[in-house]
Amino acid sequence: MAVIGLVVNPTAGKGRAQGQRDKLGAIWKARGHQVVDLSAPDLAAAETSARQAVVDGVDALVVAGGDGMTHLGVNVVAGTTLPLGIIPLGTGNDVARALGLPRRDLEAAVKVIEQGLAAGPRVIDAVRVTDTSHSMMEWFVGVLSAGFDAAVNATANRLAWPPGESVYVRALLKELSRYAPYGFEIDIDGKLAWQSAAALVAVANGSDIGGGMRIAPEASLDDGLLDIVIAGPVSKATLLTVFPRVYRGTHVSHPSVSVRRGREIVIKPRLDLGQAPPDAHTDGERVGPLPLSCVCVPGALRVLAGRS
User: Fold this and answer.
1) Given 3.40.50.10330, 3.40.50.300, 3.40.50.2300, 3.30.750.24, which CATH number is that of 3-120?
2) Tell me: the pLDDT tens digits for 212-236?
3) Which residues in 166-263 belong to E strands, given as ranges?
4) pLDDT digit string (tens) for 100-109?
């Protein structure tokens, strides 16, 4: 029998997750496990409950919701030996997709977590992101967006319609109407790598954003490296042509797009080179304004998922 700390986000998937909390508890108990319900009415309270449960002692922290709830779980357990289980019930579910987890299937998701408890967790990298003064720090496991991709993410988070991944398409069209290139300075492993305008900047540990956009198709969760995808200062017409290719991952072959790799990425705004970049987002959640530093920490996270 395992002691499961369960956190369900009542707002994930436009309210779908809340209706699944009792069902999840019943599934775990029917399988002989003890469930500690850590759910709360908002993410801040849920994170407080989850951190207290880690102190009190659970065998695994299991989060049920979308990428925002996964982000919460990562920030509770990264850098510890406590494993994280993920039950994807949200809109994007990009981290779950990168891990190959079953989405919106409670029984299948619970079975994968049980298998992980029995066989041992999969060890993957996580990314520590700080501002340049190091006054803030948090973790992410998927992608940090800092350009047009971040603007689309922010707009999608505010939209109530349409449901599911289609909300990102509507957000893309809304943001395209006010697009202009952003000014960036980017360092990779201590060396200047970019000093120009750009449309899109993504620092990727995982491959997907926005409900299946393959922003960094070659990114790996356990290679100790980050992929940074930069789309140069393209026109609105070119952006409209290139951005839809993100769904297939073929945008990386466009001459305006480059992919580089490194362990530490520092992104700074350059207002003399373009408009101010939007606030960065990681795993679908707002982090804050640039400048930001992203450092890949190999093996920082244990997840109850299939082997790589």
Assistant:
1) 3.40.50.10330
2) 889 999 999 999 999 999 999 999 9
3) 182-188, 191-198, 200-204, 226-231, 257-262
4) 999 878 999 9
